[in-house]
Amino acid sequence: MLTNYQAGRTFLCRPLIFVLVLSSYSCSKSDSSTPPPPPPPPASPPTITAVSPLTPYAGDVITINGTGFNTDISKDTVDLGIIINNVFSTALAVNVRHTRILSATSTRITLATDSQLVVLPAEKVALVLRTPTGSATTAGNVLDFKQNLIFSFSSVDPFSSGCGGTFAGDSIYLTGRGFYQPISVTIDGHPANMTVDQNSTTTARGFLPITYFGVNNPIGCAAIRTLTVRVINGDGKSFVRSNFFWPGPNSQIQSASFDNLAYSLSNGTNALFTIKGYALRSDWYFKLNGHDNGSGANNSVEFNPGISNYPTQYSMAFDLGTLPVPSSSLGTDYNMQFKVGSGSDYGFAGSVFTLYK
Cα 25 vs. chain centroid, distance in angstroms? Predict the structure, then answer.
């Protein structure tokens, strides 16, 4: 009997244990479930902490540092404008206010402005950055765009020029925009001393020495050349243009005379001939035209003084014995003409002296 009871007891307890296990499993599963995580906080709007360079040229690459930038460049935009009373506005004289994003990370954006950008009147401008999460502006109008270098070349000669172009010995001028000191100027690769006017970015001036081109005695307008003028700013920007140059000075005669109005061969044959002017050249030619008051005969004598080194005054001894002896006591009247260059024509004549026996 004990055996049967124990067996029956054993049989009856096994189902009970199974039920308890199921009940325990069901409760344990219900207790381990967790609530879903909360949604992420909204993305912060962008901030701008630095911009460089602050004095760019149109077309330069500009870098913006900050936070909250979108790494997809198609979702970032940067425009130029001006901050007035703490409000950003694009209503200013910027012909191209949009920029082109080149690259973007969450903290750094590089962009390029249009190469034809002009800010007129010239003033500092601001940037506004827009992303899907908001916008940010620079801390004021921080960008001061430099004007791209461009200029025209001109000169002022001590005398009017019949050949055109710029002469050695001329004052020279550059007029344009975008001169940022210190500048260097070359003409045909040779340094030219020019200085930007004080507090100016539009005008520079200088002087070409008479010997600048190293040509001592150029002859005629055929010597004119087309040469390249190059200006290089202190920041490395440069601009070139061509101009006509005459490699010598614009030589001029202001007066040419003998030391007396009358000479007598009986007193000697020496006369002093003096020329005054500007940058006198070696290719000035003179012609004395004589009219014998007794016989009516005419004669002429041509001579070249042999001037060198471009003086402002030159004197030479002239031998009156090279002239025909007058036929009578009435003497011979002489006038004089001069020209520059052996192939040119003589100008108007002027009376100079009378030669007697």
Answer: 88
> How far is the CA of 58 from the CAs of 74, 119, 238, 325, in angstroms?
22, 9, 14, 79
Tell how far CA 159 is from the center of its chain.
Answer: 28
Of 106, 117, 102, which is closest to residue 61 (Cα–Cα)?
A: 102
- What residue type is 303 in one-letter code? F
Range of lowest pLDDT (6-10, 180-184, 194-198, 286-290): 6-10
pLDDT tens digit sequence for 14-45: 444 333 343 444 444 455 678 888 877 777 89
Are 218 and 247 within 8 A, CB to CB? Answer: yes
φ/ψ (deg, to 5) at 5? -65, -45
Only one residue has tokens 């140059």, namely 245
Q: Spell out where 69-161 has E strands.
A: 77-84, 87-89, 100-104, 108-112, 126-131, 134-137, 150-156
- Looking only at the bridges linking them, the beta strands covering 184-187 and 284-292 are unpaired
- Residues 6 or more apart whose Cβ sits within 8 Å of residue 146: 55, 56, 57, 178, 180, 235, 237
Q: What is the number of other CB atoms lying within 10 angstroms of the CB of residue 47?
A: 14
250: exposed, middle or buried (Cβ count in 10 Å: 0-12, 13-18, 19+):
buried
Q: What are phi and psi of 112, to 5 degrees?
A: -125, 135
Sheet-wide strand order for 270-278: 252-258, 270-278, 313-319
Q: Which domains does the chain have, with CATH numbers?
A: 47-137 (2.60.40.10), 150-246 (2.60.40.10), 252-356 (2.60.40)
Closest CA to 319 of 261, 268, 266: 268
Average pLDDT value for residue range 291-315: 94
Of 307, 293, 303, 189, nearest to 252 by C-alpha is 307
C-alpha span between 111 and 73 (Å, rounded): 10
Going by the DSSP 8-state scheme, the letter that residue 325 receives in this structure is P
